[in-house]
Amino acid sequence: MTTTAHPPTAARRSARWGAILACALACLLGGAAEAGEVFAALKPDTIRLGQRTTLELSFVNCQPTTPPQLPAVAGLSFDFIGRATSVNIVNGQQTTTLTLRYAVTPDRAGDFDIPAVRAEVNGQTLSTSPVKLKVLRPDENAPAAAEQNQLAFLRLTPAKEEVFIGEVLPVDTQVFYVNAQDIQIQPLTGDGFTFGKTAMLPQGQTQVGNQLYAVGGTRTTAVASKVGELTLGPAECRLNLRVRSERRRTNDPFFDSFFDEAFGGRFELRPARLVSPPRTIRVLPLPEAGKPEDFAGAVGQYSLAVTVSPTNVAVGEPITITVRVSGRGLLENIKLPSLDRWQDFRVYPPTSEVETADVLGIEGTKVFQQVVVPESLDIAAVPPLSFSYFDPAARAYRTLQHPATPLIVRPAASPAGLAPLVPAVPGAAPTPAASDLVPLKVRGSPWAVITPPLVQRPWFLLVQAIPVGAFLAAWCWRRRNEALARNPRLLRRRAVARLTRELMPRLNQLAEAGDSEEFHAVLFRLLQEHIGERVDQPAASITESVVDDQLKPRGLAADSLADLHHLFQACNQARYAPAASRADLMNLRAKLESALAALQRLKE
């Protein structure tokens, strides 16, 4: 165990500066009448071997005449890292607190008792209460309460830990931090799960133990594709922690702390990687008992609405059946029951579309359009429709029924060219019978003039050339598509260029309107698409780390690399602090154009 020691000259300077600060503080408060107190606290009080914690000595309405002498504790070393002063005024009463901070480093795992710390204050000796420190082994599981004193930690929270196969499971990934920036939550992984869309959780604050944390994160959905005990996660997050710098300018801690407080203190950014513990999800199979014959795999909670139009048709005329399945679940996988057993109907393949009501796409309506054609006059109704699903909340199958719809089917219209039968009217003159022979014309018509053959007319030759031209155009179009299919990089490059032409004007409009949130979303998408095309990776997997891992080895200029880093960091920061001025947005747009131009010049 080592305790920070100061030479006599440093002690004299510390005493001198302490006296000066004490006099200045006494003048500021006008002489507070309350007696001074001293408190000690460890933040955090549970760490792992290899980590450090902070011992804080708080002097309330007083200041030490000389630096406090810390007790010797076997297995622990103490180093002074800084000080802070705060003034609180409540109901006219002023309270001044001077906090001295010491870094505590253990050299072994175990439980440590730090005895009371004594300090000389205005000729009298004040003591703190003893504190306890728990140091865990690197492989030892920390208690749940240990996370409350960390600078940042990550939680993976599924909505529940037991689901049925095919059931949609919402999963939250929350990051808790005291002071951090450049937060990047990585996509969630898990063997046996299929993940859906991801949405940002609202920013907030919460208190864990005695520490106030800012909270952000994402929410996604997971659907299990196999039965058993499956592992979800772990979740991962990369960020930069803003921590107070422990480097000192001189050997006098009071001298350094005086200037730190005068100029706002010294901080530094430390990259960190947070990993949450994985979660075990128990996946149950769908029961066989009570399974309806028309069950097609839908799992969730749903309702059914059916409309039939028209209901008065002739034989051979189409009828449109609109089926709306609304509710919560995996809407894309819902299937319409087969209508192959409908007699006297010609059934066409249905069309469908999904109308989502939330950002995750698990609530909404799937609309089916089914066209059927009656082929018999004996049809009196459209048969009933049913839809079966499994309700995981009730752990039972449900079947929704729509009754038969009455239908009027008329005979088909008479074929064209046949005269309708008209009944004879009494007293009417009989209609003369038409003669089957037409007399020969005495004088010839103008159409009898002999004209040149069609093959000698220019317009006829032009008409004959149209099919040849259409064939050549179709042949060239097909050869072009085949060439693009053999060159997916070229096809993707053209798609990225087309997307850029569409989004760059939109980016200008958002910058002019000052819409920071939408501006950064479009900016981030353009970055992902262009970098993904250059390095031949999916756009969704592109993060800031690709800049140094993939683009720097390819010879991208240093200024372009710096611009890309700046653009990624601006997009990440906009998720938590979307406010930005119009000038900032225009500057980011200019940097984007420069960076994209540099990427286009980069070799593949």
Report on the structure:
The chain has 604 residues and is an alpha+beta fold. It has five domains: 8-145, Immunoglobulin-like; 150-283, Immunoglobulin-like (Sandwich), CATH 2.60.40; 291-410, Immunoglobulins (Immunoglobulin-like, Sandwich), CATH 2.60.40; 454-486; 488-601, Four Helix Bundle (Hemerythrin (Met), subunit A) (Up-down Bundle). 25% of the residues lie in helices and 35% in strands. The protein has helices at 8-29, 253-262, 458-486, 488-513, 516-535, 545-551, 558-574, 582-601; strands at residues 37-43, 46-48, 53-60, 76-90, 93-106, 110-114, 118-121, 124-127, 131-136, 152-158, 162-164, 168-177, 180-185, 193-200, 204-208, 211-224, 228-232, 236-244, 267-275, 279-284, 300-309, 312-314, 319-329, 345-347, 351-356, 363-374, 381-382, 385-391, 396-402, 405-406, 408-410. The radius of gyration is 40 Å and the shape is extended. Residues 1-12, 23-33 and 416-425 have low confidence and may be disordered.
Question: What value does the average pLDDT take?
Answer: 82
Number of helical runs?
8
CATH topology category name of the largest domain: Immunoglobulin-like
| pLDDT < 50 runs, ≥5 residues | 1-12, 23-33, 416-425
Integer tally of domains? 5
Amount of beta strand? 35-45%
Number of strands: 31
Structural class: alpha+beta
Question: What best-fitting shape do the alpha-carbon axes yield?
Answer: extended
Distance N terminus to C terminus? 57 Å
**Alpha carbon gyration radius:** 40 Å
Major sheet attributes: 5 strands, antiparallel
Q: Tell me, what is the CATH class of the largest domain?
A: Mainly Beta
Q: Tell me what the CATH architecture of the largest domain is.
A: Sandwich
Instruction: Classify the helix fraction into a percent range.
Output: 25-40%
